[in-house]
Specification:
Number of domains: 1
Structural class: mainly alpha
Radius of gyration: 25 Å
Strand content: under 5%
Strand order of the largest sheet: 1-6
Order of helices and strands: HHHHHHHHHHHHHHEHHEEEEHHHHEH
Distance between the termini: 102 Å
CATH topology: Ribonucleotide Reductase, subunit A
Largest sheet: 2 strands, parallel
CATH superfamily: Ribonucleotide Reductase, subunit A
Helix content: 55-70%
Number of strands: 6
Length: about 500
């Protein structure tokens, strides 16, 4: 009797194989209800009918993911080791370049760790296996970024001031409350709002404007480790942005009632992310001794072209409009960095970085890139006056405490729409108290959730209440963890003096 030949098993497609390796591990709870097992995905009003409709743009298994990341780490740490052994820090364009990296270390790295923790939380609490696995991978990405950023910049801490207490300063220093409050806001939101805050605002808006142009600036200023880290992380960020877009589309496709909720989150988190990006703006325009791309140019390329002309036409199909207040952000691109750096110049005595009047060459670059605003509004009335004070033997700092915006927590510095000579201020009253905001965008956010923002930890208020070490400036700086040489003026600073000695050049006299 002739045996019937067996047909070979049909090879699974890549999508089916990925589903078998990930989705088939899911199960329906038997001795608890689904609501008890996943209690966090219903209170925001979002309606999910079919979790299996989640599509993973990058179909990675855990095994493939870790092998891929390990290869990137090998290349990164080889660069870090070679840079350290060759005293590569001496090849930077100037010691002042590291002022930007001090802000990056204290302002961004702790946020990466917080994102790791909350994505790990979501990887347990999302109902569907697709978003759970996506959250798990992003959780691992974020802790890897925190670790590699710390390792990348730790070499500079041996030689330069201002990097020694970045975790303490992230929680305490006045300007760090801007990025910290952003993440406090996101972490205290629900799981779907957190996805929009991070996947849309933080990844699409902040990451593009920080990682791509700024890492090119790091390369141009001789910072090989930061450039290598940045491009090592960029492939992760591309995946995060794609996952953020998938999250938005998934929510919109599940139920039409989700559309107005997502629209409000897009409106809110665009403005919150944009206000944090104001710090990035001054880093690009003022803190790179060899500037590469202006904030205006980066904003036009990575926001106006890629998001407004690329992303939002796709989302229009689902009923999503461009963010509320987007035109004000476009109008501010001509002046944003100048206003923020002026604040930093006035208050760097109480920060972990140094500032100085831009050189004539740097001012010429700024005038070329901002012909409509820099010369008339900033170079002549502000920097020329500051230069006259320095030439007469002084260097002023603003020794008072500024008024802060209740939402973004940036000092009141932004102009009225269409009027660069007038500071914008908006107010709201809630439960008999008066609150101040820096813009129409921040006021709209406050009025939408006043009970959330009245609880904001505002550094200026805390100092006045005696919760920051004591009533005097030295008390507050000691509470911050500041050490001699961390902040103030660049000229005559410890970093500038050391840099001159290492390179055999005369140091500038202290202003």
């Amino acid at each position: 009797m002739t045996a019937t030949p067996t047909r070979p098993a049909r090879k699974l497609s890549m999508k089916a194989r990925y589903s078998a390796l990930t989705r088939d591990l899911d199960w329906e709870p038997s001795y608890v209800s689904s609501e008890e097992m996943f209690p966090y995905t219903s209170f925001e009003g979002i309606k999910i009918h079919d979790w299996s409709k989640w599509e993973d743009p990058f179909r990675l298994t855990v095994d493939a993911y870790y092998k891929y990341q390990a290869e990137k780490d090998k290349r990164l740490y080889a660069v870090l080791d070679g840079f350290a052994q060759s005293q590569g820090h001496l090849s930077l364009s100037q010691a002042s370049y590291l002022n930007a990296m001090k802000i990056f270390l204290g302002g961004v790295t702790p946020l990466e760790y917080q994102a790791h923790r909350n994505f790990a939380f979501l990887s347990r609490h999302f109902n569907g296996p697709g978003p759970r696995f996506a959250a798990l991978c992003q959780s691992q990405d974020e802790i890897r970024h925190a670790q590699t950023e710390i390792h990348t910049l730790s070499n500079y801490n041996k030689y330069y001031s201002g990097m020694h207490s970045f975790l303490k300063q992230h929680d305490r220093v006045w300007y760090m409350s801007v990025p910290k409050s952003y993440f406090d806001d996101a972490l205290s939101a629900g799981p779907f709002e957190f996805l929009i805050a991070i996947g849309f605002s933080f990844e699409y808006l902040l990451t593009n404007l920080l990682f791509v142009p700024f890492m090119s600036g790091a390369s141009f200023n001789g910072d090989l480790p930061t450039m290598t880290f940045g491009f090592s992380a960029q492939s992760d960020e591309s995946r995060h942005m794609t996952l953020g877009l998938e999250a938005i589309k998934f929510l919109l496709e599940q139920d039409e009632d989700n559309v107005p909720i997502v629209q409000e989150w897009v409106d809110k988190w665009f403005w919150r992310g944009y206000r944090v990006a104001a710090i990035v703006a001054q880093m690009l325009d003022y803190m790179l001794p060899k500037p590469v791309m202006s904030w205006k140019e980066a904003f036009e390329l990575y926001f106006e072209k890629q998001m407004l002309e690329g992303l939002f036409p796709d989302l229009e199909y689902y009923g999503i409009k461009p963010p509320r207040h987007v035109q004000q952000a476009i109008d501010e691109k001509e002046a944003l960095s100048h206003f923020v750096y002026w604040v930093f110049y006035n208050f760097s005595f109480a920060a972990n970085f140094t500032t100085s009047i831009p050189s004539k060459e740097h001012q010429a670059w700024l005038a070329e890139n901002y012909p409509d605003t820099f010369v008339d509004y900033f170079q002549k009335p502000r920097w020329d006056k500051a230069q006259r004070i320095v030439d007469n033997g002084g260097r002023f700092f603003f020794m008072g405490l500024p008024q802060l915006c209740q939402v973004c927590q940036i000092p009141m510095t932004f102009p009225e729409p269409g009027d660069l000579n007038t500071i914008c201020q908006r107010t709201s009253d809630y439960n008999g108290e008066h609150f101040n905001m820096c813009s129409d965008g921040c006021k709209w956010i406050f009025d939408r959730e006043p009970e959330k923002y009245v609880q904001a930890w505002l550094p200026v208020h805390q100092i006045y209440q005696g919760n920051c070490g004591g009533p005097t400036v030295p008390d507050v700086l000691a509470w911050y963890g500041m050490q001699e040489g961390d902040g103030g003026e660049i000229a005559g600073s410890r970093d500038e003096v050391n840099w001159a000695a290492w390179h055999g050049t005369p140091a500038a006299k202290e202003a």
